[in-house]
User: Which sequence fits this backbone?
């Protein structure tokens, strides 16, 4: 399965992380998961370790990234219909 996705690539430089955004096209899920694995191993989410990330399945890694980057669409003050 190929799809488009923006990837944040982390490179360690003098104990700082440089974020560089590149557009990936026609990546397979496995290729995307490996890029995400590198990203999250350098900077694991709260409550996880690099070791946890290393042994996650491709599906679990993609799901975790989706939920960590899922934007909340129910913003307060947004125009629309509200029930109070």
Assistant:
């Amino acid at each position: 399965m190929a799809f488009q996705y923006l990837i944040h690539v982390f490179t360690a430089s003098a104990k700082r992380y440089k974020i560089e955004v590149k557009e990936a096209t026609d990546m397979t899920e496995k290729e995307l998961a490996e890029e995400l694995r590198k990203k999250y191993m350098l900077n694991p989410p709260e409550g996880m370790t690099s070791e946890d990330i290393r042994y996650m399945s491709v599906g679990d890694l993609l799901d975790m990234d989706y939920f960590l980057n899922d934007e909340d669409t129910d913003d307060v003050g947004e125009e629309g219909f509200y029930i109070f």
Summary: Strands lie at 3-13, 16-27. Residues 29-42 form the longest helix (14 residues). Residues 1-21 have pLDDT under 50 and may be disordered. The radius of gyration is 16 Å.
